[in-house]
Each structure stands twice: as C-alpha cells, then as structure tokens.
Amino acid sequence: MIPPTHFLISWVIADATTKTRRDRALVTLAGVIPDIDGFGYPIENWITINWDTPLLWHSEYHHILCHNVGFAAFVTVAATCLSKGNWKTTFFACLTFHLHLFCDVIGSRGADGYQWPVPYLLPISNAWQWTWSGQWDLNAWPNRVIGIGCFALTLWLARLRGFSPLEMFSSKADRAFVSTLRKWWPRRDSPASVIS
Fold this sequence. Notes:
Elements (H helix, E strand, L loop, with lengths): L2 H15 L3 H12 L8 H10 L6 H5 L7 H14 L4 H21 L33 H21 L9 H14 L12
Helix pairs in contact: 1-2, 1-6, 1-7, 2-5, 2-6, 5-6
C-alpha cells in the first residue's frame, strides 16, 4: 500500500484508541515509519533517468531496512519512551507498525509483478520472508477502496470528535479544518442544521 493509505489506517486506529494529541501522533507515525526505507526512490528514479549507472537505493533497501522485527522493536521502545510508559499507546504503536507490514504483504505487488517480500526476522535472520501468492498490485482497486474508505472515515471522525490528522502538524490548521468541515457537514442535532 502507499504511504498515505498507511497513514490514514494508522490515524483511524490512533483516533479510536488514544486520548492525547501526542499519543495519536505516536500511534500514527508508528504505522507509517516502516516506509522510511523507501527514502531512496526519488534519488534512484532521478539517477536512472539522467545517468547511465543506476544507484539502487530504493530497489535494494525498500522492505529491508525497516520492515522487520528489529525496527519494530526500536519503534516500540521509542513509543514507550515518548508516551512516558503508556502501555496502551505502546501496544497500539506496535500494532500499527505490524499492520503496515501485513498491508504490504497483501497489497504491494509492483507493476512489473514483483512481490515485495517482508523479511520479518531481520536483522537476526533472513530465513523467513512474509509473502502471499494472492498479493494484489499496488494500484489495484482494493487499495483504492481502503484508502478512500479510511479518508471518508477520517473526515467523519474529525467532524464528530473535533480533531483531525492536521493536529500532528498545526493546532491552528486543525481547528480551521474541523470548523470548515462542520460548516459544510453540520451534525443533525446542531442548531445550524435545524430548519425553523
């Protein structure tokens, strides 16, 4: 799956399970951070287009550096420290991290048919690779449906609860977004939606 879909899935889980802005951010980021090992894609793409010798930073390292139990342990410990020992936040950060890996196993096949295996036991062992023969393409309709569904759910939750993923970046932008969302989509029990 693409990073925005991972982000939205993780946000929905964070929204439903945590109470503070910081904890929602930790749970959400834990579900996206495995894709940091895809950092080399723009560089590899640019060099492949403009130079004769490719630099395979994405091809060689994506799903290797951060899609494994070693990095999961690191993220879980970091979530524990940053949440000040909140076990619930730690648990859901670990869950969204592993949900990211699961989603990649079921829906991240490349356009060329390459299955992105998840070498889960790294850095301890490369013996076990998570794969699934039914893995659908990255741009397949199930990924789109999941992404659109999570986006719609995120809007609904923002309207209902009064905060959105924007709170991770700016409280002011989040308040403006939620206010606008509530104007466009008033609650049935709000005074604005009652017809006199």
